[in-house]
Task: structure prediction
Amino acid sequence: MTTTDPTPPTLTETLARLRGAQKGHARGAPAYSVYVNRRIGRVLAAVAYRFGLTPNQVTGVSAVHTFAGIALIATVPPTWWSGVVVAVLLVLGYAWDSADGQVARLRGGGSLAGEWLDHFVDAFKIAALHLAVLIGLYRFGDLDEVFLLVPIGFSIVATVTFFGMILNDLLKGARGVASSHARAGGTFGRSMLLLPTDFGVLCLVFLLWGALPVFLTAYGALFAVSTLFLGAASVKWFREMRRVD
Result:
């Protein structure tokens, strides 16, 4: 007697399973990541699951999109079309970054190696993106050198912010304290207030890459907000660590 494999779930069924298996978002999660990126990632995760991709393979797809966009920033002169291509690649890379964890949940859970790979790629792209902006502005911008300090500062702020968030969860986990992802999500108003700190918004700003003065205004504004956020968050995080102690 022969047996046949069960019929794989349809795309609609897979999306329904994903909606019921979403993890809670952190209180500090900004609006684009929660209400846009996660939903795009859900569709991509369902497609990836149907094609039998593993979470690590999905992380690889995310990296290819993201680093292709970063390479274009540093190597191709700013034009309207290059800005659109960069923005689309970065947005898709960010959405695939959301999809890898969702695929892991569909497959019954992730692994430490997969989580390490995900965070490693995230750290790489956060630093590399702003350094690519530095190179692009230096090569093609014909700007006063003071403007080159902005992407250097943004790279520092973004890298330290990411490290701080990861370190918070690591140290709290070592003391048995629930991480930010395990707590109930914040309000819609709070998510909207934090929108300028969202990596997805930074991706969309590259739609202005072909008009450098406009791009620099928007990019500089995001840098200023991100710097203020890091200053306030670092005080809050330190106080939380003292309470955990």
Q: What stands out?
A: The CA atoms of residues 14 and 46 lie 6 Å apart. Residues 212-244 form the longest helix (33 residues). The two ends are 63 Å apart (CA to CA). The chain has nine helices and no strands.
